Amino acid sequence: MKEDFQVEGMTCGGCAGSVENTLSAIPGIESVEIDLASGKVTIESSAKASLNALQNALAPLSRYRIRHATNSSIKAATKVETNELWRKFWPLILIGLFLLSVSFVSALEASNPMQKSMEIFMSGFFLVFSFFKFLDLRGFVRSYSMYDLLAKRVTLYAWIYPFLEVGLGFAWAFVGGTFEVALFTAILMGFGALGVILAVRQKQAIQCACLGTVFELPMTSVTIIEDLLMVAMSLFFLIP
Prior knowledge:
Elements: E1 2-8, H1 13-24, E2 29-35, E3 40-45, H2 51-58, E4 65-68, H3 71-106, H4 113-135, H5 137-144, H6 155-174, H7 179-201, E5 207-208, E6 217-218, H8 221-238
Antiparallel strand pairs: 1-3, 1-4, 2-3, 5-6
């Protein structure tokens, strides 16, 4: 039978993993599904799960509290999590706004303002995002290898990826949106989006590595939009 519970104190994928492993180890529990956004935990067991047994199992992990879920508690938790997500994604939003402003102003006097502004934006995007990855390169590799399709199998690719972004940043700045630069960007970002889409669809509670480990960004559809936006902008330069 399946029952819903509410767990307080989970703030990241590591928290969700700890709770899942702890509860899964309780005899009689067959599966544990966690929705990190709302804190909802769905437990499937051979018999009705004992709340006392669940609380005792989580007792050594003092930061977590579990109780029976109600519609009001889930809604309240979802509202809090929405505010928390806004706070976590604010650095990403702010970076985007700065890049848009700089690229727009810098391209005002260009012969083709739209094309030039997109080239500047792409350059700034890759340089800024690679900068944050280099702040904790080892941490980025660890996070990126959890969901990227190639990095999962070849860790060296995760080490190389920030250097690829740096190269693209300088390429968009000094070479511009040539066919080769745009094609390589579309392939790199398109392939990266596949791993992100798969992770989001499977509701994996992992950290997005787009800004390295400096900001704890959860893996959500925002990451998909970010990657596909880069693909779309690259296609602009590929389509005659």
